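Throughout our pipeline, every protein is held as a single compact record rather than as scattered files. The remainder of this section carries one protein's record, kept here as part of the documentation.

===
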Amino acid sequence: MELSVSQQSVGEYPVLAVRGEVDVYSAPTLADGLNTLLDSGTKPVIVDLTEVGFLDSTGLGVLVAARTAAVDAGRALPIACGHERILKLFKITGLDAVFDIHPTVDAAVQSLGHQKGHQNFSG
């Protein structure tokens, strides 16, 4: 399945909706989408992986680089992901302790509302 990324908004937050498979060939598309959103604002960016069926180490690397850029800018980069295979990948790599992962975009938005003014994203 080919990768597609699209920019959306949920409430006040930009969302990068990712669909398909993220691998060594499609990861640059993910990186471009993330960089565009991170370069164009100051709000947290939610990464919606709920429609991603496959994510390899290259895709994880793109997400880690984007999180580093977000944290350096004082922003959050929560991830929405409910797919067990993808969640397992985050867990076995230890990245579940690095990323703020939620089962849905709405849950990610809700967590950002609770964090507003209460959290330092440098971690």
Notes: The longest strand covers residues 13-22.
